[in-house]
Amino acid sequence: MSLLEALFFVSWVVIFILALDISRRQKFNALHFVVFLLVGAGLLVFAFIPSVLDLIGAVFGMPRGADVLVYTSIIFLLYFTLLLLAKNEKNREDITRLIREISFLESKISHQHSLEPQSWKTKK
After folding, report:
1. Cα(8)–Cα(116) distance, rounded to whole angstroms?
2. What is the rounded distance in angstroms from the CA atom of residue 33 to the CA atom of residue 18?
3. 3-state helix, strand, coil in the chain (%, to 5)
């Protein structure tokens, strides 16, 4: 087993453990879990049958299959970056909406307390 094959195998083990742990805690949906498992399975195949990389490279018209892995990795990284940016923007909008609602409710409560008779304020 070459060093690259060993790296693929260790990466598969780490990805598999992380995917199981994250899915157990329900931190991502089933599609992401399947993608992680497919990437992990691909790494396992590449670790034990490295000639598959050359076949994949030939299908895409590249001299080396490792180039296909690099390009595919870049595409997946861009995809997940866009997902993270979209989620971050949604969280920012949700926080802004919540802050506005809290401010509105606080001002409403403050306004109601200012209209109470003076005797009510001392009893609290």
Report:
1. 71
2. 10
3. 85, 0, 15
Phi, psi of 27 (to 5 degrees): -95, -15
- 72/69 Cα distance (integer angstroms): 5
pLDDT of residue 22: 76
Tell me the HSE value of 55 on the side-chain side, using a 13 A CA sphere: 6
Q: In the chain, what's the furthest Cα-to-Cα distance?
A: 87
Contacts of 45 (CB under 8 A, 6+ apart): 52
Q: Are 44 and 27 in contact (CB under 8 A)?
A: no
pLDDT along the chain (124 residues), means of 10: 79 80 73 78 80 86 84 87 92 96 90 65 55
Total Cβ atoms within 10 A of residue 45: 14
Which of 71, 64, 36 has the alpha carbon at shortest distance from 50?
64
